[in-house]
Amino acid sequence: MIVAKDKSEALVTYVNISSQGGDAVVNKVRLKGLDPMAFYRIDGSEIVVSGQMLMESGMYVELPHVDYASTMVHLTRL
Q: Structure pTM?
């Protein structure tokens, strides 16, 4: 995860190294370094979440159940 110095945006990369069968991999990822008082939009969606919630509760990441499946999530502060 990379967070801009001014905490205006962040880029989260998640990689599932090894799958173990099944339909999908769903993991909760707790983020760090965001502004807890700000709200962030998950790019490509209408989802808006507070920095505090992303850091304390995390966000769910769903990936196909294959080795080395990955995703990137870009967050933009509102």
A: 0.83
